[in-house]
Design a protein that fits this description.
- The protein is of the alpha/beta class.
- About 30% of the residues lie in helices and about 15% in strands.
- It has one domain: TIM Barrel (Alpha-Beta Barrel), CATH 3.20.20.140.
- Helix 6 packs parallel to helix 8.
- The longest helix has 16 residues.
- The radius of gyration is 19 Å and the shape is globular.
- The two termini are about 15 Å apart.
Length: about 280
């Protein structure tokens, strides 16, 4: 069955802050923009945060400049921009009817039990990553792994076994996209090839495939690495693209075109949301 999502028409005003931007500002040329616009392969950036000056209007303008469709989101969880159902409803209402996909990045592991099902049903996608993890034990309070001063890792191999289990837990949730797969914290990032063995990669990829979770190819972080992407494709995984912006400045999106060509990604390799309920 083919599902078609028709996005509403939106006019980008010439007064838009992005009106003067060009494809080159995003590391693209006009041929690539045309190729994306023709949608031979669904090229969608599902990791556009509405923060740091980025707005829905600017996201729509970015689509026009790059030819890359966009999924906007906010973070959901304790201490994040959306904590309550009221805040979630306000966010959903603020982006309703705009020609973008709408999602959440979930940061608590019990998110699906904390929020009204009718509100969650209005989302086009749910994205998560593995960058917040209990430390030093599974029953400890979660820490932000990118803040290296907040914890220590004494045994890298033992931690990796815990970390793979953490990956599998996140992948067991009703999410659609795993962002920044194979992320490693600062203390271990230079040991990527050593710690991310084929066996560990296979466990993560198999869980993603079994759960229907797409794996993000991030254009900023360079994650995941080549070996993971090639293995994931052989195992039947779906992929997405993500920029994970911090503000509204242009981001080099060349990795989208490079990945499509290098890994021969076709439309069947890419994740795309179906029509939302009621459409």
């Amino acid at each position: 069955m083919i599902s078609i999502r028709v996005l509403p028409i939106c006019v980008v005003l010439l007064t838009s802050p992005l009106a003067a931007e060009k494809a080159e500002d995003y590391g693209l040329d006009e041929a690539q923009v045309k190729r994306f616009a023709e949608a031979r392969v669904p090229v969608i950036d599902f990791h556009v945060h509405l923060r740091g000056g980025m707005t829905v209007e600017k996201a729509v303008a970015r689509q026009a400049v790059t030819g890359i469709k966009i999924g906007v989101l906010r973070n959901l969880g304790k201490g994040w921009p959306i904590e309550t159902d009221g805040q979630l409803r306000e966010f959903l209402d603020s982006v309703a009817g705009r020609p973008v996909f709408v999602g959440l990045q979930v940061n608590d592991r019990d998110w699906m039990d904390k929020h009204a099902s009718d509100l969650l049903a209005r989302l086009d996608f749910v994205l998560a990553d593995t960058m917040i993890m209990p430390m030093p034990r599974d029953d400890s309070e979660p820490v932000k792994l990118w803040l290296a001063e907040g914890y220590t890792i004494d045994d890298a191999e033992a931690w990796m076994e815990r970390y793979v289990r953490h990956n599998l837990r996140v992948l067991s949730e009703p999410i659609d996209i795993l962002a920044n797969p194979t992320y490693l914290p600062p203390a271990l990032e230079d040991r990527y090839d050593d710690l991310w063995t084929d066996t560990r990669m296979r466990r993560v990829i198999a869980a993603a495939v079994a759960g229907g979770v797409a794996l993000e190819i991030n254009v900023r972080s360079g994650l995941p690495h080549d070996r993971f992407i090639r293995l994931a494709k052989r195992m039947g995984a779906k992929f997405t693209f993500g920029s994970n912006n911090f503000d509204d400045r242009p981001i080099n999106m060349a990795r989208c075109a490079e990945a499509i060509d290098r890994y021969r990604l076709g439309k069947d390799d890419m994740y795309s949301p179906g029509a939302p309920p009621g459409e």
